[in-house]
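Justification of computing resources. Each target in the renewal requires a structure prediction run like the one illustrated here; the chain below, 204 residues long, is used simply to show the kind of job we budget for.
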Amino acid sequence: MGRGRPRKTDPDTVLDTSMKVFWEHGFDGTSMNDLVTATGMAKPGLYATFGDKEALYTKALTRYVRDLGSPMLEDIKTSPDPIDVVVRRFLDSVATNVVDKNNPSGCFLANSVVECGGHSSSLEDIARGFDSERRAAFVDRFKAAKEKGELPEDTDAEALGEFFAGQALALSVMGRAGVDIATLSRFLDVAMQVLTTRKATPHS
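Resulting structure tokens:
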């Protein structure tokens, strides 16, 4: 009997699987053979559909940001809730995600920012570009909170925004190191004191 046609593999499924492999092992720690094994797609098919490893990594990181990061950033940008509520909700979501046993540990974006610094400019640019978007969203939200009177007039909104955006990176490193959710929550309790002690007294 002749061999049947090879089973077609859904590109979206392959991309999701590739994302988790890169997320777990990083760019350097993942080979094309690893991706072939994980996805079930032959190497020629991977190259034809996604390009080389760098191109596939870029597409995987973009998928991660679109599916997980963008909805959280949108809440930072548009939620009508008070600044402390919005910031804590974002960071609690990060903490929950980085310890989720259904996913690799840590934050794929944060991992990429750390790892891609020594790689090609295109990889570094996309990782740092997404991270800059996150930091900008925090800074803009703190500036808006200051303008609304939620924070005192002498508040350095940019420094606060950078500080809390940085907590997302810290949570990722801690989650990847195996820190549990209770410890991450206590860490955030302390970090949030920076904001709660700065909140302005509501105007009468």
